[in-house]
Design goal:
Length: 90
């Protein structure tokens, strides 16, 4: 991870880091499709999710790069994360 050594938030906050989830090819495809849908639904949230979860930027780094406030970045992260969680769960 980049930044202060902080690990990116996961979609499933209840899992143990000692037992990381196994991601199969089908789930990778599903996440890719969902990210495309999130991009259409909310491009700003999709960008923050990509930067934070997939690229490992901290929320503070994203705020600095995008020139958004930390609060705006956190809101977009939470919105995008929750949108993805809802769709992955169904």
């Amino acid at each position: 991870c980049r930044g202060s050594g902080e690990a990116p938030d996961s979609y499933d906050d209840s899992r143990s880091d000692a037992n990381p989830p196994t991601v199969g090819a089908q789930q990778v495809v599903e996440i890719g499709i969902l990210m495309d849908q999130l991009e259409e639904h909310d491009p700003a949230a999709a960008r923050v999710v990509e930067m934070h979860h997939f690229a490992g930027f901290t929320l503070e780094e994203i705020a600095e790069v995008t020139k958004l406030s930390f609060r705006q970045v956190r809101h977009r992260w939470e919105k995008g994360r929750d949108w993805l969680k809802d769709r992955l769960a169904s």
